[in-house]
Amino acid sequence: RPLPTPEAAVEPEPMPLPYLPEVGQIRYRVERGDNGFEIGRATSEWEVVDGAYVLRLHTETTGIVWLFKRYRIDMESQGRLTAEGLQPERFSIHRNGVPSNEKASFDWQQMKVRVGDGEPQALAAGAQDLLSFNFHLGFMQDPRVARTLPIATGKKYGTYRLEAVGDEMVDLPVGPVRTLHLRAPGVNTTELWLAYDYLLLPVKIRHEDNKGDSFVQVATDIRLGRVDGD
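RESULT FIELD:
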C-alpha cells in the first residue's frame, strides 16, 4: 500500500516591495465592538513631495451617534520618506478643531524627541508617531518577525511590542483581501491587518482600551495614486 502523501506546506505570502504612492487615500467605516455597529467614518490620506510626506487622519461620528455626540479628531504627521521607511518630524492632534497638547517633535540631528510640553528624551532609530507607524510597517524588513517599535503617541514616548498573528483573508466592502494580521498587545491593544495586494497598507485596525471597549476601522475605499480630476 502506498504511503500517505504529506500535505503540501503552505507558502507564506510574498512581501510586497516597500513603496508609498505620491498621493493616496483610504476611507474607513468606524465600528464600536465587533458587531458591525457603525459610529463614525475616517479618512486617511497622504502626499509625498520631494521625499517629504504629510499624513492626515480625520475621524468623526456619524448617524445616530452624531445626534447625541458630535466629535471629530484630526491627526497629522509630517516628516521624511527614506529607504528605511517613514522618519517623522512633527505630530499633532486636534479635537473638534481645537489644537490639543497631544503632540510630538523629533530632532534626528540631536536624536531627541519631545512629547507635549515635556522635556526632550533620547530618540531611538526607527521611532514613529501614532499615525506614521501604520504606514511604516510595510517598510520593515519583514513585519512577520516579532520586534519592538518606539512610538510617540502624543501623550508619551515608549517602546511597544509588535507580534504577528498570521496571514488572514478579510472580507471588506472592497472585496476579500489577503492580509497580514499584527498585534501590539498592552494595556491598550492595537491590531492591524495589512493588505498584501495594497502595499501592506492597513485595511483594518482594531483598538481595545483598558476597559475592554473596542473600536474597529474597516476600509471601504482605497485609492492609490492620482485619479482624473486631481
